[in-house]
Design goal:
By secondary structure, the chain is an alpha/beta fold. Helices cover 41% and strands 19% of the residues. It has nine helices and 14 strands. Strands 3-2-1-4-5-6 form a six-stranded parallel sheet, with helices on both faces. The protein has a three-stranded antiparallel sheet with strand order 7-10-11. Strands 12-13-14 form a three-stranded antiparallel sheet. Helix 2 (43-54) links the parallel strand 2 (35-39) and strand 3. Helix 1 packs across helix 8 (240-254), helix 3 crosses helix 4 and helix 5 packs across helix 7. The radius of gyration is 19 Å and the shape is globular. It starts with 9 loop residues before the first strand and ends in a 5-residue tail after the last helix.
Amino acid sequence: MGEVTKNGTKITILGAGNVGASIAYAFAIAGTCSEIVLVDIAKDKAKGEAMDIRQGTSFCTPVNIYDGEYEDAAGSDIVVVTLGRARKPGQSRIDLAQSNVDIIKSVMPEIAKIAPDAVYVVVSNPVDILTYTILKCTDLSPSQVIGSGTILDTSRLRSLLADRVNLSPQSVHGYVLGEHGDTSMIAWSLAAIGGMQMTEYCKGHEYNNDKLSEEDLLSMEDEVRKAGAEVIKRKGATFYAIALSVNRICEAILGDEKAVLTVSSLINGRYGIEDVCLSLPCVIGGHGIEREINPPMLPEEVEKLRKSAKALRDVIDGINFD
């Protein structure tokens, strides 16, 4: 693929609820784009959110933010999809599946015709199922449709691991892969601290292997998996951290960064997985998903990934896409 030439930096956000509005706010603060369109069936809500952010833009990078209709998505570089019902306390992401699939099916074919060249960043839950749904109900290319996937789970993992070894999260690397949900898995063999494999770092420094025991790793995995539900239990919803995650994806697209991020995409053949959307490392640039990264994992890790794929496939098989 050649160098990407953008006509502008326009992002349309479908859905102006807590998540959509927080994403717009993150874009404005970060100076990610020059134009933001908020579209929601609750038109007053979209208008109010746009007005609220616009009134503070003299304190940050100038951005033209306004509410609009579906037709205003025309010419967008990115369309962010936050449509659908939010997860309630005690509800799994999968419980949301059919109702949000129906919403996506009713809206996305029209949007895809209005903005056929945009890169679509899917945030609505269950994100893996809805990313797959968009590909089923539109003619968009798999490289154009990116689920936010486990990018936030991966950020949570890096923060937790950094806390355990008393370092900055920027010096710690690791991946949460598979479903953004209950069957996600951590490929611990790929975790690195200060440029070294995690186990080697712990051997060679003041921290020994007992510092990160098997129990510690299982505890971190459980904490990462339940982090979203814990926030929802306490404040009723999650939106700030996902907004920052989506901003990171959009920065990589608009800046043609070639950044490696764990996002949800259509998997056909990777690690023996077929016809399901889940998170694996991908190279993100101006065209969307530009390359796939397939790091070597231990056989037991690949097996966990395949179990995650099967769980998602079972949900897909139970969904009515017609």
